[in-house]
Amino acid sequence: VSGAAANSGDAADLSSAATAAKAASTSAGNLPTPPGLSFLTEDLEDKVRSAGESFQFETEVTKMMKLIINSLYKTKEIFLRELISNASDALDKIRFRALTDKKALGDTPDLKITLVADKERNTLTITDSGVGMTFKELKANLGTIAKSGTAEFLATVESQKNNTNLIGQFGVGFYSSFLVADRVTVVTKNNEDKQWIWESTSESNFRIIEDPRGNTLGRGTQIVLHLKPDAREYLEENRLRELVHRHSEFVSFPIYLWATKTETEEVPIEAEEEEQTTPADEESEDIEDITDKAEKDAAPKTKTVTKTVTDWELTNQQKPIWTRRAKDITEREYNEFYISFTKDYQDPLTYNHFRAEGEVEFNSILYIPKKPSPSFLQPGDDWSKNIRLFVRRVFITDDLAGFLPRWLSFLKGLVDSDDLPLNVSRETLQQHSIIKVIKKRVVAKAIDMLRALAGKDEKKYLEFWEQYGAAIKLGVIEDQANKKKLVKLLRFRSSHGGGGKSGLFTSLDEYVLRMRKAQPQIYFMSGENIETMGTSPFVEKLIARGYEVLYFGDAIDEYLVNVLVEHDGKRLQHVGKSGVKYGDEDEAAKTALAEAETKFEPLRDYLRTRLGEWVDTVRVSYQLTTSPCAVLAGEHGVSGAMERMLQQQVAGNKDDFRAKMYLQQKKVFEINPDHPLILGMLEKVKAGKQELLDDSVYVLFEATSIASGFSVRNASDFAKKVEVVVRERLGVDAKAEATVNVVPAPDVEKRSKKSETEEEEEKENVVEGEGEGEDEIDGHDEL
Ligand SMILES: Nc1ncnc2c1ncn2[C@@H]1O[C@H](COP(=O)(O)OP(=O)(O)OP(=O)(O)O)[C@@H](O)[C@H]1O
């Protein structure tokens, strides 16, 4: 091959380069060239470098490449999984197209992936007969980052430097080639275009040239990786075999490795060889002749020889795992399939493989990942690609927006339908009645899977609950049809079994089983953490009496109780809200309460007036034990946690009248008739000394509100009143003021006005300083 001719650049040279390439393709590298594949020659690659049109990578791509190289250097091997997965996607696309366009497969009907390692040239070549790329696609797909959300992803990963696991959760795609290669050449041929060559050395640009050889691929894409010195292991057949088994076993197209193997063969023994081994003494006796003849007949006519042959070796199974019988598949196979299918870095938490029969027939495997995606249940999360749809083993789409309800956005898997037509259009797919039935069945099966897990393996279910509990709660709120089943999957921390941090999880059914005789309500407390909920005065009393209280600590719980209302005929009752009933209140207790109400009437009157701005009901309660009083939300009011959420809502939208209305609801103030403080207050009121109580009552009310889970209304007022009360307690004059000794600041320093150049210089220094890292905080005036 003439390098000079190939480099000179006119049309005649291109055709000579093409002939040269074809010739070289018959003897490339150390192995015989695989039949049916042609490779780029070095001079043709030189040609691309010198004559190809140059393009800049999008900045995002350069960032992505750097990130991949810096964070995945320890798991370089994933490049092969990524490239095979791209090849498989491209094969899926052409297979799908061929469903409606018979000519799409043309002269390249074999759908396959091949791997060829060339030790001499130090290249690994991955070829597929997939859909290929047009010039436009090539330039866009391998030069920009088309996927929305990638910028966001880049920011997340960058903020968690070297978080290999995080980056592993996203397919890193084609750019992972640069983990092992310092130069990558891509040859591609799409039915709609000519064959193109793309080339890059991972710097800021890439080149594209029309392939001077014409169409050598038929259709598809060939990726040539020029391996870095430390990536030579990927030239070893064994290593490649092992990687395909580990990461790409379940790719549904055949993956062939061009490999050597030793074969043994029986070959006839040559004539001379035979002579050497046969005694031929012509002088011998007849009798000996006969023996010799017998020996000669018995002597082997063939021998075993071993020889090395090079051939395509099929490295993967391809029979889709979901079409096999569940009892023949090991857990390991399910897990490996999951990893290759989702590109997760760890095994799933659980899975369900089933065949639906009846109205519609389909196979499905559903998986629950161990950890949800970082954007799980966040605004903007997109889970439309979580379920892949196949029709009779043919991949149809992985874009099924609306297939899974939001609460199931963590579920991953596939559905392979026998009933949908193969040429179903992706656009109208969602409206297809069969899809609607499949959807329903999948949701039902997912619920079954969770119920089975909860019933079979409580520990694992709680592991699930810790990660996805909010999703189940969301399901109860949003999925009316499945609400009943989902309620059974709810778990809450409870005062049963110790409370506090060790508070065990319980289901509502278990709670109901433990309910006391005549107990009419399921008691719960809400708040930010279990410690404060567990020590609130309401909970305290209930626990002291032997009742169980559930702790609702998630923001979503506030919405949940609005929808849940009751379970098994028992109303859910916030213990910090008006309306708690025990069911054992007898006539005697009722009379005692009525008497106490009358006894405390003067104090109740006084409190209603003093706290009238915030409280509309003051009542006596025997529900308090050691606490003198408690603040509750009225029946239509909201808990402290909800109040804070609403406050934020109002801060963001001043016109949110509904939220404002809730916030304006007055509270219920309960007093403990057996508490000495309350009795003392009653005495003072009866003696007409209310003014002595004014500040203390206010302080008591605010402090009790805090203990009951609400926030203090006016912190500075509260602090002032606390001071008043403390002064009283210490006998310090209420009007005495602190001696203030104000030290005046030094005089203004005289400075001359800065020249413009000085100011510019200063600005530049500040900008430079900002770029130098977070530690460099010295010298900032504010600090
Ligand atoms: N072998 C191939 N044949 C055809 N097109 C390809 C091939 N490899 C890559 N592409 C195209 O280039 C695009 C970008 O590939 P890349 O691997 O970077 O991302 P991706 O495959 O879209 O996503 P992922 O991150 O899941 O791999 C692909 O979407 C596809 O359109």
From TrEMBL:
Protein residues bound to ATP: 82, 86, 128, 133, 141, 147-149, 169-174, 221, 426
Superkingdom per UniProt: Eukaryota
Keyword Transcription regulation: no
Matching Pfam families: HATPase_c_3 (PF13589), HSP90 (PF00183)
Assigned keywords, A-Z: ATP-binding, Chaperone, Nucleotide-binding, Signal
Disordered as annotated region, ranges: 266-302, 743-783
GO molecular function, a single term: ATP hydrolysis activity
Domain Histidine kinase/HSP90-like ATPase: from-to ranges: 75-231
InterPro entries: HATPase_C_sf, HATPase_dom, HSP90_C, Hsp90_fam, Hsp90_N, Ribosomal_Su5_D2-typ_SF
Ranges of biased composition (kind: Basic and acidic residues): 290-300, 747-756
Start-end of Acidic residues biased regions: 266-289, 757-783
HAMAP family assigned: HSP90
Protein family per UniProt: Belongs to the heat shock protein 90 family.
The protein's name in its UniProt record: Histidine kinase/HSP90-like ATPase domain-containing protein
Organism of origin: Geranomyces variabilis
Lineage per the UniProt record: Eukaryota, Fungi, Fungi incertae sedis, Chytridiomycota, Chytridiomycota incertae sedis
